[in-house]
Specification:
Blueprint lengths: L4 E2 L3 E7 L10 H23 L3 H13 L20 E7 L5 E7 L5 H11 L4 E3 H10 L13 H15 L29 E6 L5 E7 L20 E3 L3 E7 L1 H6 L2 H12 L3 H16 L4 E7 L3 E6 L5 E5 L5 E4 L2
Parallel strand pairs: 4-5
Antiparallel strand pairs: 1-11, 2-6, 2-12, 3-4, 3-7, 6-7, 8-9, 9-10, 10-11, 12-13
Length: 326
């Protein structure tokens, strides 16, 4: 049995577990996904050549936020009112510094704003109009909300509205009993789209970050796990973690933090901790809830999920990269 994938320094990324069914992924679209994942990894690697772990995370995520392929930044899911609102978070392991934003509607790259909150504010979490005001104050690029909207996500919103009208909406998210049947986990990307990255730099520093457009047709100010430190993102001196999947369950189980806690308290490896959480804790509650990427302090790379697939990849210190989907 092969040993764990291990790098000296580099970046691991995900583009969400909301992968298209294999029969719907044309060769051209698969090439676009793989090329964009590779571009993300290359950007993260270039940033690490002379930079810190947080530079690698931000640059890797920025590429995916600017792509219409992923549910983050441009290409984000649409809220029930037809607009895009985005969330992001970032955390560094050496000092537990963190920044997060939610419900921002005009910030081109939410991961940059999350970093700004971490580095230029005494706060950790900003939302809505306050986060947008902080972005303008600090020179973050602003763009009209229409720039984020894509035809694919318009169709996804129409599908989500139709499903809800047919009674196949968002069980448990809106307070329905847990025994209400779920939609097939991989039949829709409404619950599963996110992008994220974890970087380990030359000095051994770890940083993790996550960015998302949230759930299609979301209402009532719903916020998932992506901007929640400890749920969708976490970094410590042991590992960095970025999650993707049905956010309510990742929040309830503090998934990202749980991986680091298991390493600290049980003495298990990062791979063992991830396996226990993804295929144990989450799988026992609901099948096919999501996945995550993680990097251990020793450079161990983990990309694990309990769904049909997860857009993902890693790059090492030499610039050698691998990407995968299913």
């Amino acid at each position: 049995m092969p040993g764990p994938d291990r790098i000296r320094w580099g970046v691991v990324i995900h583009g969400g577990v909301g992968v298209l069914p294999e029969e719907d992924l044309t060769p051209e679209l698969e090439r676009d996904y793989r090329d964009t994942l590779a571009q993300s990894l290359e950007a993260g690697h270039a940033a690490l050549l002379d930079g810190r772990a947080e530079d690698g995370v931000v640059e890797a995520i920025r590429v995916m936020e600017d792509s219409p392929l992923f549910n983050a930044g441009r290409g984000s899911n649409l809220d029930a009112d037809g607009r895009v609102s985005t969330d992001a978070s970032i955390m560094t392991g050496e000092d537990l510094a963190a920044g997060a934003v939610a419900e921002v509607t005009t910030v081109r790259n939410p991961i940059e704003l999350a970093r700004m909150v971490m580095e230029r504010s005494p706060n950790v979490f900003m939302v809505g109009a306050g986060a947008e005001a902080f972005a303008r104050l600090n020179g973050i690029e602003i763009t009209p909300n229409e720039w984020f909207v894509t035809e694919r996500r318009l169709r996804a919103l129409e599908d989500a509205v139709a499903r809800e009208a047919a009674g196949d909406g968002t069980p448990n998210v809106l307070g329905r009993p847990a025994d209400v049947p779920l939609p097939k986990p991989d039949s829709s990307t409404r619950f599963a789209g996110t992008v994220g990255a974890v970087a380990l730099d030359r000095a051994g520093r770890i940083c993790a970050g996550t960015s998302t457009g949230g759930m299609a047709n979301k209402r009532f100010g719903r916020i998932g796990d992506s901007p929640v430190i400890g749920a969708g993102t976490y970094a410590s001196d042991l590992c960095g973690v970025s999650c993707t999947g049905w956010g309510e369950y990742f929040i309830r189980n503090a998934v990202a933090h749980d991986v680091a806690a298991r390493m600290a308290y049980l003495g298990v490896t990062v791979g063992e901790a991830v396996d226990q959480v993804i295929h144990g804790t989450l799988q026992a509650q609901r099948p096919g809830l999501g996945g995550l990427v993680a990097l251990g302090r020793d450079g161990t790379v983990v990309m694990d999920f309990n769904t049909a697939g997860m857009y993902r990849g890693r790059v090492d210190q030499e610039g050698a990269l691998d990407v995968g989907i299913y």
